[in-house]
Amino acid sequence: MTASDSRQRQAPFAAACRECEVEQGVDSANELVAFYRRHSRQTDHDVVVTRTDFAFDLPTATDVETVVAELEAHYENGVPLGAVVAATSEQGVPVGETLEELHDVRLTGALYEPRDDHVAVV
Amino acid sequence: MTRWNNGRDEVEPVSPDITEETNALPARYFTDPAVHEMEKETVFGRYWVYAGHANCIPDAGDYFTRNIGDREIIVVRTHDGDVEAFYNVCAHRGSAMVEETPMTDPGNAGRIKCPYHLWTYDLDGSLASTPKSFEDARLNPDLEDEDVSEPDAEENALMSVHTDRIGPFVFVNFDDDPMPLAEQAGSMKTELESLPLEEYHLARRIVSEVECNWKVFGGNYSECDHCQANHQDWVRDLELLESELEVNDYHWILHYQHKEDVDDEMRIHEEHEAKFYYFWPNFTVNMYGTADGYGTYIIDPIDEGRFQLVADYYFKDPDLSDEEAEFVRTSRQLQEEDFELVERQQRGLESGAIAQAQLGPNEHTVHKLHRLAQEAYEA
Ligand code: FES
Ligand SMILES: [Fe+2]
Questions:
Q1: Which residue among B74, B86, B116 is best mutated to probe the pocket of ligand 1, counting the most ligand atoms within 8 A of its Cβ?
Q2: Domain total for chain A?
Q3: In this predicted complex, what is the ipTM?
Q4: Report field, pTM of the whole predicted structure over 0.80
Q5: Is residue A62 part of a domain?
Q6: pLDDT in tens, B59-107
Q7: Which of B22, B97, B195, B222 has its CA 20 to 30 A from that of B253?
Q8: Does any domain span residue A17?
């Protein structure tokens, strides 16, 4: 590692595509989702979250309704999608799968989107 | 006839007769930022717009805020028990005074105090006090203290906004000389006021941000030709062919008949049907056939391509029973299904392919919405 590398700040969040062997560091949880959207649009690959920087422990459930319910304690006005995918990714569920799951559960009426890319329990 | 966009943007005004070819609002009115800006005045600056529910601010000093277009208002319960509305703007140097306070979590203040230089207003808007520094001229060598007159309480009052009510529903109007609410609401006012709306309390509020123009959602709410294909769970218990659409001056009502007679206990109103009121420009009242309660939607534009749906649910007891919670969830499911439709429609409109769409003969409620929009733009 060079001196300049070590001075470089490590991004607090990162996601990776196993197939392409790329990892992307980002500044906020929701940018993980943005990275996924970009990457899957171009390559159709799913991605996993590889680094997070939350001030609290992520829920260990895998069903998204429970995950959102537990995360709501830490947020006002909706849980960022990035936090949800980070939690489920830790349990082995890739980002794209979780987003699909979230979409399905929204259609049942159990979740809603108080603002863009944030979800809450009805 | 649909007018495809051949690059010449040939469109015509919304025809008064629905059988004519050009019966829909041209596509650009759903996508153009300039139209959104214009609507702040021509639509939201002129008609009666729903602000909130009087039950949410029961005691003197209770208030919530609302943004309508660019205007920010405070809706407050006064000492006389009235509900009044003021611009959230200080008479001194124009500072906004209170922070955004939703109806679900109202604030309470004995007085309205501006945080900037502490001018303080009574709940009726009149200026109650100013700090000492506004009563003497000690820092200004050119003025004697005697030259300083006390600010007049009424002349320096907050700027009030016209309010009126349909039962507990509080409406505001920013026009200098608005048409009476009773005129805009017509029979909807008498119908709703015959119901014990104030015996019900806000139990849930679900706010969603949706990516389409507010009129796209308004149009979707106003017809149910899409229901069979898109709300299969919901239509199962409905007699869709028996439904009726009633069009009035500034509101229209969708009447839905249930297949089975619903239990009498299960609803607030008398008819054996569900009734959905759309009140121009952006308010709906949802009278369900299957719940002893009602709902309202506020379809609040954010910009030309986004709006916020504020869905409020009112029940006798704000603590929901399991059935009521399930009911809200089902209603939420319907919204979510509609969001898919309206966001897809917006995408199509924004693609630029279409210059002017067309409405079917049974989309007369949507036609009314488009006509009212055009009337507002032209006024
Ligand atoms: S601006 Fe409100 S007190 Fe000065
Ligand atoms: Fe619908």
A1: B116
A2: 1
A3: 0.72
A4: yes
A5: yes
A6: 999 999 999 999 999 999 999 999 999 999 999 999 999 999 999 999 9
A7: B22
A8: yes
